[in-house]
Design brief:
Number of domains: 1
CATH superfamily: NAD(P)-binding Rossmann-like Domain
Strand order of the largest sheet: 3-2-1-4-5-6-9
Number of helices: 9
Helix content: 25-40%
Order of helices and strands: EHEEHEHEHEHEEHEEHEHH
Protein name: Epimerase
Largest sheet: 7 strands, parallel
CATH architecture: 3-Layer(aba) Sandwich
Shape: globular
Low-confidence stretches: none
GO molecular function: protein-containing complex binding
CATH class: Alpha Beta
Pfam families: NAD_binding_10 (PF13460)
Structural class: alpha/beta
CATH topology: Rossmann fold
């Protein structure tokens, strides 16, 4: 793509968006970050109401759709994406790249069901698309460990299996896909290794120099069984290269 090609990034201020925007700029794209609140140099639009979307997508070649609201997924993710796709179709956008989550079709969880419905909106939106399902970010894994350690000990199901991915690796993958034609397909992208929550907890505590006890409990339920069975992991290649321990070493 030439420097004149314009890429709109929804969710540009989020964890992944904060890595995607500079990666696209580094590769010479004219990046149009989108936000709900006025911000200098950014375009203002609201997926929940549709306000500003027509202006946001005008003159855009590719949309990288990252915006999501786990607390309000029906309003923001499903219906907001429907509004975005309608605006993109009217504006003649050539490619919508939507980032979803590995395992949403295998794990019974309300937010995941909304993400699965959002994928269907993208597929039926009348605009050429690419869907990339990513595994859990390193930051999310750490956030979950922090939440599980609030009582004092770290309380985990030791056999939960995850495949944490670096946002930098995923941002590079997304930037590469932006430069290619829409695939009209769903692909998956994960981190370089599958780890149990026991692995995560022990390495996390060691990196922080903490000696908290780890309470290992088999968490019952369908969701937990799916995670133990690897529903949040993927065998897709290529994978990212930055490991969980790389993330911990860089942070601590």
């Amino acid at each position: 793509m030439s420097e004149k090609n314009t890429v709109l990034v929804t969710g540009a201020s989020g964890t992944l968006g904060s890595a995607v925007v500079p990666q696209l700029e580094k590769q010479g794209y004219a990046v149009r970050p989108m936000t709900r609140s006025a911000r200098s140099g950014w375009v203002t639009a609201d997926l929940r109401t549709g306000e500003g979307l027509d202006e946001a997508v005008r003159g855009v070649d590719v949309i990288v759709h990252l915006a999501s609201s786990p607390g309000r997924p029906r309003t923001t993710d499903v219906e907001g994406t429907r509004r975005l796709m309608a605006a993109a179709g009217k504006a003649g956008v050539g490619h919508v790249l939507y980032v979803s989550i590995v395992g949403i079709d295998r794990v019974s969880y309300p937010y995941y069901r909304a993400k699965l419905d959002t994928e269907q909106v993208v597929k039926g939106g009348g605009v050429p698309y690419t869907i990339v399902r990513a595994t859990q970010f390193h930051q999310f894994a750490e956030m979950l460990l922090s939440a599980l350690s609030k009582p004092g000990p770290v309380i985990i199901d030791p056999d939960w299996r995850v495949q944490p991915v670096a946002i930098e690796d995923l941002a590079e993958e997304i930037a590469g896909l932006v430069g290619r034609p829409a695939t009209s397909a769903t692909t998956e992208y994960g981190g370089p290794e599958v780890l149990t929550f026991d692995d995560l907890a022990r390495s996390w505590l060691a990196a922080r120099g903490r000696k908290r006890p780890i309470w290992r409990l088999g968490i019952p339920g369908k969701l937990s069984r799916a995670i133990r069975a690897g529903a949040l992991t993927t065998a897709a290649t290529p994978t990212g290269s930055r490991t969980w321990r790389d993330y911990l070493a860089a942070k601590y």
